[in-house]
């Protein structure tokens, strides 16, 4: 209803020219609307966004949801629908789901997610299944899945990760350490450069004799 100088008292049992509805008919909810410095009563079948219907022996009222970022609520402290961009979780609204819970985008709700245990200690530094013979290797740590997610579509966090490490023993006991293949490649490149330089020098000498 739109109120001007003479309020429209639709659904009212009693009404004031200046303040609109004062009491409502049975089953309707009394809602006190505020517009700037002015306020007036309305009788509604359902409460507007951000309010919930509170039924009392005296009169049914629209009471404000006290939950932050809530669009509609079941009671003062339990939200049933959050504002756009927020996830609903146990009657509250969140920008992101709490730890241990995953977001269902289609419903904008938080459900039981995949829980994992603590990381193990880092394993032995190795390379090609060897713990010596190289300067650098990889070490790995793992963790176990403690609780599977409520839905198969919800992924679990990674349960294994590796990082670069320096081997404790670069030279294997009783073995002769060989230079990496990169060193051989450098020698081969150097040899090719020398051969190319000698060839260019021979061409230059031949050209110089011809010109004479």
Give the topology, please.
Elements: E1 12-16, E2 20-24, E3 29-35, E4 38-44, E5 51-54, E6 61-64, E7 70-75, E8 78-82, E9 87-89, E10 92-94, E11 101-104, E12 109-112, E13 115-116, E14 136-142, E15 145-147, E16 160-166, H1 181-211
Antiparallel strand pairs: 1-2, 3-4, 5-6, 7-8, 9-10, 11-12, 13-15, 14-16
Protein name: R-spondin-2
Keywords: Developmental protein, Disulfide bond, Glycoprotein, Heparin-binding, Secreted, Sensory transduction, Signal, Wnt signaling pathway
GO molecular function: heparin binding
Tell me the major beta sheet: 2 strands, antiparallel
Distance between the first and last residues' Cα: 112 Å
Overall spatial form: elongated
Q: In terms of per-residue confidence, which ranges show pLDDT below 50 for 5 or more consecutive residues?
A: 1-6, 208-212
Overall residue-averaged pLDDT value: 80
- Kindly report the spatial arrangement of strands forming the biggest sheet: 1-2
Number of domains: 3
Name the helicity range: 10-25%
Q: Count up the helices.
A: 1
Helix-strand pattern, N to C?
A: EEEEEEEEEEEEEEEEH
Beta-strand percentage? Answer: 35-45%
Overall strand count: 16
Describe this entry's structure for a reader.
The chain is 15% helix and 36% strand. The protein has one helix at 181-211, and strands at residues 12-16, 20-24, 29-35, 38-44, 51-54, 61-64, 70-75, 78-82, 87-89, 92-94, 101-104, 109-112, 115-116, 136-142, 145-147, 160-166. It starts with 11 loop residues before the first strand and ends with a helix.
